[in-house]
Design goal:
By secondary structure, the chain is an alpha/beta fold. It has two domains: about 270 residues, Aldehyde Dehydrogenase, Chain A, domain 1; about 180 residues, Aldehyde Dehydrogenase, Chain A, domain 2. It is built from 15 helices and 20 strands. The strands form five sheets. A seven-stranded mixed beta sheet has the order 15-16-17-14-13-18-19, sandwiched between helices. The model has no long low-confidence stretch (mean pLDDT about 95). The structure holds 2-aminohexanedioic acid (UN1).
């Protein structure tokens, strides 16, 4: 297939980087296949995008919210129309199996229709004033120019989660997608363009995180940064935004666990574990990377899990028979391999997998075998650090209380799951698990767009994306008092003796 030539999108113009420098995106299943070239943007390119977004903000914020939302409905309809094309491109560009890629696009579509609905809500409150003949209310105000820095693992869904509510709320946006998925971001931007959004309302800047991303985060005329990615980069983003007084929403690492109690439906728990651990090759913030197994079922569960895992078919995402696709790039492949070395040094036992897969066709891509590690203790690095690959560790627990304690013994807190038939335990788990998301009898993955998404502790900074909570990220409250008494009324004073 002929490689795509991606460009930046600024003020309704498709542009190369001013320097003319470009970067490449490759198919992780066949590294020799070039998927796209894209601009290596730096500060000058970012400056142009910020100027365009600022200029457009002046008028976009005045467009009535229901009218802003109509553009987003249109984007949703176009995403539906191009769903298959986008899914295929995504599979080629970042490797996830086609069924999952379709799900990723569907999440963008869901988000379009949900966010657009908010255009006719964006509710504020009215409340009585303590003074006579005085009216009090609150209304949501847009924030301004928003920089959206997004990862490669959900190349359509996550940019949509961020851009759609931001736009409905009256902000203008600059998307800086991950350098592994420039083609998906470009196609998404073409759809926004086709939906007819006014020039400068949506902009796209390609490039490296440490160049284009950094320039956006540091830019004095950016008002808000919404970032999803690694904890290391998130720390830099948070620190810089703190120093420059920007609004900031951070979504970072996870070390999600699934608990399986002795009373669980084991077949169901296995289905959940396999999907949670190996779906998207473990490259989800919500992936299951620890299985906390009650000692009474651990042996049986492990046997069943191994049997299921041994049947998983590795391959290119574009092959309909593939269960597990490649890792996104060679550095992720190395990272996962290094964690396997660490696991072996720490004394973990590899029950299955544990190696780079390079037989036959697989030798051309970044494939890692689905891996299960046993004899793992909660203090080992593989039980504490985010691996972001198809690796899951098994930890034996003696009781419900111990399971919850181990689940919580991590700096992160994104997703979590428990399989049990005991309603009392289920409710205690909902209360006691330290995570932004808890699934009862479901895997750690599978968030829906109309509910809040995000994590506690070091996973985030207190914000939630999606759901109505996205409105909290992308608006600020204005409190309005209207005095129609015709006189000066002093609150706390004139209404007291
Ligand atoms: C992510 O991994 O960054 O719940 C997002 C899920 C998906 C979203 C994951 N709907 O796994």
């Amino acid at each position: 297939m002929t490689p795509l030539t991606c460009q930046n999108y600024i003020a309704d113009q498709w542009l190369n980087a001013v320097s003319g420098d470009t970067l490449e995106s490759r198919n992780p299943a066949v590294n020799s296949e070039l998927v796209a070239t894209f601009p290596r943007s730096v500060t000058t390119d970012v400056d142009a995008a910020v100027i365009a977004a600022r200029q457009a903000y002046r008028t976009w914020r005045l467009v009535p919210a229901p009218a802003r939302a109509e553009y987003i409905y249109k984007v949703g309809e176009l995403l539906l129309q191009y769903k298959e094309e986008l899914a295929l491109l995504m599979s080629r560009e970042m490797g996830k199996p086609l069924t999952e890629a379709r799900g990723d696009v569907q999440e963008g579509i869901d988000c379009a229709f949900y966010s657009a609905g908010e255009g006719r809500r964006l509710f504020g409150q009215t409340t009585p004033s303590e003074m006579p003949n005085k009216f009090a209310m609150t209304m949501r105000m847009p924030i301004g120019v928003c920089a959206l820095i997004t990862p490669w693992n959900f190349p359509i869904a996550i940019p949509c989660w961020k851009a759609m509510p931001a736009l409905v709320c009256g902000n203008t946006v600059i998307l800086k997608p991950a350098e592994d998925t420039p083609a998906c971001a470009t196609k998404l931007m073409e759809i926004f363009q086709q939906a007819g959004l006014p020039a400068g309302v949506v902009n796209l800047i390609h490039g490296l995180g440490e160049e284009a991303g950094k320039a956006l985060v540091e830019h004095p005329d950016v008002d808000l940064v919404s970032f999803t990615g690694s904890s290391e980069t998130g720390a830099f983003v948070g620190e810089t935004c703190g120093r420059t007084h920007k609004r900031v929403c951070l979504e970072m690492g996870g070390k999600n666990a699934q608990i399986v109690m002795e009373d669980a439906d084991l077949e169901l728990a296995i289905e959940g574990a396999v999907w949670g651990a190996f779906g998207t090759s473990g490259q989800r913030c919500t992936a299951t990377s620890r299985l906390l197994l009650h000692r009474d079922i651990k042996k049986q569960f492990t046997t069943m899990l191994l049997e299921r895992t041994s049947k998983l078919r590795l391959g290119a995402g574009t092959n309909p028979n593939t269960d597990v696709g490649p890792l996104v790039n060679t550095s992720q492949l190395q990272r996962v391999s290094q964690y396997l070395e660490i696991a072996r040094e720490e004394g973990a036992k590899v029950l299955i997998g544990g190696k780079i897969a390079n037989e036959g066709e697989l030798q051309h891509g970044n494939f890692f075998q689905p891996t299960i590690l046993d004899s793992v203790t909660p203090k080992m690095r593989v039980a504490r650090e985010e691996i972001f690959g198809p690796v899951v560790v098994l930890i034996e627990v003696n009781s419900f209380e111990e399971a919850i304690a181990i689940l919580n013994d991590t700096p992160y807190g994104l997703s979590s799951s428990i399989y049990t038939r005991d309603i009392n335990r289920a409710f205690a788990a909902m209360r006691d698990i330290e995570a932004g998301i808890t699934y009862i009898n479901g895997p750690t993955i599978g968030a829906e767009v109309h509910l809040p998404f995000g994590g506690v502790k070091q996973t985030g900074n207190g914000h939630r994306e999606a759901g109505t909570t996205a409105m909290e990220v992308f608006t600020e409250w204005k409190t309005v008092y209207v005095d129609f008494s015709g006189g000066l009324q002093r609150a706390q004073i004139d209404n007291r003796d």
